[in-house]
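User: What would this chain look like folded?
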Amino acid sequence: GYSSFVWAAERGHGDVAAVLAAHASEQQEDGSRRLDLERALFVAATKGHTRVVEVVVQAGVDANHRNEKKE
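Assistant: Here's the prediction, encoded as structure tokens.
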């Protein structure tokens, strides 16, 4: 299932995403936080939720990131 962060991104809840980003733990050894933020960026951008995109980018995700398929 989706994390709270991705759920907020999908629904366009920028304020919720900002709170979650502010309290997120540091990078997990398995990269799960990074993957979660990348998913949130993709979902928010796809749905046109610009406030959430701003939050995710401010949290450290590269807006120009591409997956292994170069998407």
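The radius of gyration is 11 Å. If you want, I can go into more detail on any region.
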